Fold this protein.
Amino acid sequence: MEKLQWTKDIFGSKLEIKLGSETIGNIQWGNMLSPKAQAIINGKLFTLNREFFLSKIEIFDANDHSLLGVVIINLFNPKSDVVINGKRFELEIKNFWQSQWSWKFNGVEMIRYTSNEFILKEKGEIELFTAWNEEVEVLLLLGLFVRNQFILFMLFLLTILVVIIL
């Protein structure tokens, strides 16, 4: 099992992925609310895109622009699927606050994410229970991108509540 760390400022536009003290990847949005991002992991470049209100998230190979995977998010269902290289992977959000989530293949957990903070900086761990390959890289990035979109949605709801109360 390999453990990675990830960090992102709540109102920032860059998420970093580290193995120990070495940065091995990042996701960079144009701005905090941008639906598009560029990502790099282990030297490979990717483009991520989401439709309005989280429903559809796509990941592309940044070099040849080929679609690598699409995940449809349903806020009322904690499970979503993505097909990569003909294999079906399942994303499972384990709690309401999205502080624990994972990718599974054939019911076996491959990647587990945990989030430790939510004040001014998000940070957490990623546990890999499988060997590195292109599918793992794609899933790893998708899982972090999905998490960021949930946080944006939660901040949006919080803002609406504050406006209604005031």
Summary: The CA atoms of residues 148 and 156 lie 12 Å apart.
